[in-house]
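> example.struct
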């Protein structure tokens, strides 16, 4: 399968965001999956997910929420990078929607079939995009933060899949219940899967910090990817791959 891959720039106002785009060769318009990054920023981890999505027959774009291709190098820097977006959900949503709008403008993409997946902070990004009321095919959160905010949410028009580690110290049972209630009140089409004996960052093979609660889990990694694969097949419908 021939694949065209390159780094691309797109803009949210004056902010330049640097993404990684990969589109398989096809005679048909392809669905596009956006990949939202962890609190570190866009990295090889997300770009590898782009390649894995290509193997499923989808075009994929790992997005840059921070702008400028910034990467944090410590827990403190990562926390500082996510803080403006966790605090200001309007800013957060607009930055995500700018990536969606860019994706819809691309040649070879079916603009009616756009989804987002995200990991950790990127998982919160997927949920926040659904909260914005934007109409996408679907959003998937892998071990995402579930921080609520005072920002009112619009009617959720996007199918949502939340994949969570039951032992994730960054997600409380109260946050899970609040999200469930929020989505039910919005009459959203939502699913939440809890993986037993599974910590935060369970899809990242480099995660091995028991004290912080970030630990790779091979089985949960594979199960969650299968769950995402089935979800994307559902929301995109029949796609000629």
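> example.seq
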């Amino acid at each position: 399968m021939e694949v065209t891959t390159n780094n691309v720039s797109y803009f949210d106002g004056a902010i330049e965001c640097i993404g990684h785009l990969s589109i398989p060769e096809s005679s048909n318009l392809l669905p596009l999956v956006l990949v939202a990054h962890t609190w570190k920023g866009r990295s090889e981890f997300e770009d590898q997910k782009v390649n894995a999505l290509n193997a499923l027959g989808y075009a994929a774009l790992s997005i840059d929420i921070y702008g400028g291709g910034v990467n944090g190098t410590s827990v403190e820097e990562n926390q500082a990078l996510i803080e403006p977006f966790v605090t200001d959900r309007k800013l957060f949503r607009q930055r995500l929607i700018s990536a969606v709008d860019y994706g819809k403008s691309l040649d070879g993409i079916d603009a009616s079939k756009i989804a987002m997946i995200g990991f950790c902070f990127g998982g919160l990004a997927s949920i926040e995009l659904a909260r914005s009321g934007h109409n996408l095919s679907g959003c998937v959160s892998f071990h995402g933060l579930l921080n609520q905010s005072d920002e009112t949410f619009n009617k959720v028009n996007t199918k949502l899949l939340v994949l969570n580690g039951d032992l994730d110290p960054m997600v409380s049972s109260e946050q899970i219940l609040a999200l469930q209630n929020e989505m039910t009140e919005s009459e959203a089409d939502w699913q939440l899967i809890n993986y037993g004996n599974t910590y935060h960052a369970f899809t990242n093979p480099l995660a091995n910090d028991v004290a912080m609660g970030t630990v790779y889990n091979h089985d949960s990694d594979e199960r969650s990817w299968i769950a995402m694969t089935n979800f994307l097949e559902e929301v995109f419908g029949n796609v000629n791959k």
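> remarks
The helical segments are 44-55, 75-87, 89-104, 121-131, 173-185, 218-236.
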